[in-house]
Amino acid sequence: MSKPKVVIGMSGGVDSSVAAWLLKEQGYQVTGLFMKNWQEDDTEQYCSSRQDFLDAVSVADRIGIDIEAVNFAEEYKDRVFSYFLQEYEAGRTPNPDILCNTEIKFKAFLDHALSLGAEKIATGHYAGVRQTKEGFELLKARDLSKDQSYFLHRLTQEQLSKAIFPLQNLLKTDVRQLAQKIGLHNYAKKDSTGICFIGERPFREFLNRYLPSKPGPIFDDTGKQLGEHMGLAFYTLGQRKGIGIGGSKNGSGEPWFVARKDMASNSLYVVQGHEHPWLKTATVHSQQSHWIAGNPPLENVSLAAKTRYRQQDAACHLKQQDTLSFTLQFESAQWAVTPGQSAVVYADNVCLGGGIITA
């Protein structure tokens, strides 16, 4: 009995390339799909979509599968980018990659793949999926340094039921070695970093195209004015570089960090030292909660959570406030918890879901 047809998202990077090869080796009927999600300035130096497509086509040819390109730029602009701008204008720091997964890769892409006759879709994410008697679970990848379950925590049972993550049990070093062994030219290609549509370009320069500058005062924790900011949208909590107050160190020699934003007065507050109390939070409130199993976890069980992607899981307890909001009480205070980012909850290696941080 032949395995089902799978459409895999191919970005031109090494991860999705190896994932496609693995699927073919395992006997699936594989078709590659290159998604174009941004086109506003894709002729500029910072956008690599043209080269990425050529890399994806080259890989597809090498491993012997068909590939097509599809343009989701309109859907991306409506469902992801508009939200991104709205959140920054409100002084929050969103994570558009999470929304991209739910709205584009596992919605627009999934719908397109099903229309092509696919039974499953696959991506090069470092994560896993497991079917149990209760339903589908989202799992961490074996390579915890690359695990991307954080970005996938808003997937539904229906979306997970269609998903395959071929890299679940591989280390990143294994993936590159395998790519080189099977003759993929992109085996050493640099990983993409930052927000997908911004790429390597200067962030403020990009944001300034869409949001007006609204300068205002910068204060320290005593209320002393230290300078002027460019606009609260251009700063995020915990930010150290680019604050613009130079060497004003009060003699302590410790760096300044963004600690608070007061939207009402258009004021930015900064503090000195990584361990300043204003940068520590033990109680985190979240809204727009989403639970992969359909229900929140029990309140009396030990859980762990992270409030940003590059962070170790931290022990916590959850209290559900209502159907769409919850509070996490961490055993130790968390650093620079940022409204707009996601608090993602885990039980060991199972990702349970999460919500958008409000405070």
What gap, in angstroms, lies between the N and C termini? 53 Å
What is the gyration radius calculated from CA atoms? 22 Å
Secondary-structure element pattern, one letter each:
EHEHEHHEEEHEHHEEEEEEEEEE
Strand content: 25-35%
CATH superfamily of the largest domain: HUPs
Shape, per Cα inertia axes: globular
SS elements, strand count: 17
Mean pLDDT over the residues: 92
Largest sheet: 6 strands, antiparallel, barrel
CATH topology of the largest domain: Rossmann fold
| Strand order in the sheet with the most strands | 12-15-14-13-16-17
Low-confidence stretches: none
Strand pairing plus helix content: what structural class? alpha/beta
* Percent of residues in helices: 10-25%
Number of self-contained structural domains:
3
User: So how many helices?
Assistant: 7
Give the second-level CATH assignment, the architecture of the largest domain: 3-Layer(aba) Sandwich
How would you portray this structure in words?
With 359 residues, the protein is of the alpha/beta class. The protein has three domains: 5-181, Rossmann fold, CATH 3.40.50.620; 214-274, Adenine nucleotide alpha hydrolases-like domains (SH3 type barrels, Roll), CATH 2.30.30.280; 279-357, Translation factors (Elongation Factor Tu (Ef-tu), domain 3, Beta Barrel), CATH 2.40.30. It contains seven helices and 17 strands. It has helices at residues 14-25, 49-63, 73-89, 96-115, 157-161, 172-181, 203-207; strands spanning 5-9, 29-36, 66-71, 120-122, 128-131, 136-139, 163-164, 216-219, 225-229, 256-262, 267-272, 280-291, 303-306, 314-322, 325-335, 342-347, 350-357. The strands form three sheets. Strands 12-15-14-13-16-17 form a six-stranded antiparallel beta barrel. A hairpin with a 2-residue loop joins β16 and β17 (350-357). α1 (14-25) runs parallel beside α2 and α3 (73-89) runs antiparallel to α4. The longest helix is centred in the first third of the chain and has 20 residues, at 96-115. The chain is globular and about 70 Å long. The model has no long low-confidence stretch (mean pLDDT 92).
